[in-house]
């Protein structure tokens, strides 16, 4: 697959995940090896930690926490979400305990309060998250963020997994082999709408 195809057709896959095919630890480790080459601010590169949950009993412990948080979140903002995406998100949440690997990237400390520091904090893990998702794709796997529990069940998941108090869970990535090989670019605003040169040209808000 050429680079542009990889970058434009790697989707959040929720309904085409192969729930019956296990994902070997080596595959996850290999994708994280690739993802670790992503940029990060200063010391935040080596301080991050990732946990991949593949044990079915532990996944079964995490599932109801994700489900409870997802239902609470949807009660608030489901009307703002595209209905196709909502059906797909719901499908993943319903089956989250059966997804072969649930990968949780963690950052040291708690998110800072200043916007600039927040930018460095989250900006030091999301490039690696996306690289991880791209690396999975090149190996025939698919993934989707399914991060609901960080809102109100982060501590419960931390207890289940033994994550020390000084770490923040950034999200949860559902990982499985893909039942579909080819995907298309998703609709996005035309570049001219979001890009200007030399001066701001978009609407004020
Ligand atoms: C920071 C972040 C958090 C996300 N959290 C969720 C989530 O909790 N549930 C979900 O279904 N998708 C989640 N997504 C995936 C987005 O919904 C998805 O990227 C978006 O719908 C665009 O679809 P695409 O990835 O297929 O292009 C998240 C994505 C990002 C970058």
How would you sum up this structure, described in words?
- InterPro entries: Nitroreductase, Nitroreductase-like.
- This is Nitroreductase.
- 45% of the residues lie in helices and 14% in strands.
- The protein is α+β, with helices and mostly antiparallel strands.
- It has one domain: NADH Oxidase, CATH 3.40.109.10.
- Strands 1, 2, 3, 4, 5 and 6 form a 6-stranded antiparallel sheet that branches.
- It starts with a helix and ends in an 11-residue tail after the last helix.
- The mean pLDDT is 95.
- The site of flavin mononucleotide (FMN) has 11 residues, from helix 5 and strand 4.
- The site of flavin mononucleotide has 11 residues, from helix 5 and strand 4.
Features:
10 helices, oxidoreductase activity, alpha+beta, oxidoreductase, globular, binds flavin mononucleotide, 6 strands, 205 residues, Nitroreductase-like, NADH Oxidase
How do you describe this structure in short?
This protein has 205 residues and is an alpha+beta fold. It contains 10 helices and 6 strands, in the order αβααβααβααβααββα.
Question: What is the total tally of β strands?
Answer: 6
Order of helices and strands: HEHHEHHEHHEHHEEH
Radius of gyration: 18 Å
The rough form would be described as globular
Whole-number count of domains:
1
* CATH topology assignment: NADH Oxidase
Number of helices: 10
Terminal Cα separation, in Å? 38 Å
Q: Which small-molecule species are bound to the chains here?
A: flavin mononucleotide
Which range does the strand content fall in? 5-15%
User: In which range does the helix fraction lie?
Assistant: 40-55%
User: Which runs of at least 5 residues are low in confidence (pLDDT < 50)?
Assistant: none
In CATH terms, the superfamily is NADH Oxidase
- Tell me about the largest β-sheet: 6 strands, antiparallel
Which CATH architecture would you pick?
Answer: 3-Layer(aba) Sandwich
Report the top-level CATH class. Alpha Beta
Overall pLDDT score: 95
Structural class: alpha+beta
Family: Belongs to the nitroreductase family.
Protein name: Nitroreductase
InterPro entries: Nitroreductase, Nitroreductase-like
GO molecular function, one term: oxidoreductase activity
């Amino acid at each position: 697959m050429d680079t542009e195809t990889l970058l434009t057709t790697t989707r959040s896959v929720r309904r085409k995940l192969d729930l019956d095919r296990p994902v070997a630890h080596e595959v996850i480790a290999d994708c994280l090896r690739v993802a670790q080459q992503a940029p990060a601010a200063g010391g935040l590169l080596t301080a991050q930690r990732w946990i991949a949950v593949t044990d079915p009993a532990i996944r079964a412990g995490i599932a109801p926490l994700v489900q409870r948080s997802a239902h609470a979140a949807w009660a608030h903002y489901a009307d703002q979400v595209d209905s196709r995406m909502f059906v797909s998100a719901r499908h993943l949440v319903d089956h989250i305990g059966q997804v072969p690997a649930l990968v949780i990237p963690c950052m040291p400390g708690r998110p800072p309060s200043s916007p600039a520091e927040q930018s460095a904090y989250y900006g030091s893990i999301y490039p690696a998250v996306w690289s991880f998702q791209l690396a999975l794709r090149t190996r025939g796997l698919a993934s989707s963020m399914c991060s609901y529990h960080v809102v109100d069940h982060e501590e419960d998941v931390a207890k289940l997994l033994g994550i020390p108090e000084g770490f923040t869970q950034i999200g949860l990535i559902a990982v499985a082999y893909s039942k579909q090989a080819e995907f298309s670019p998703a609709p996005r605003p035309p570049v001219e709408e979001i890009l200007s040169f030399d001066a701001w040209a978009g609407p004020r808000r």
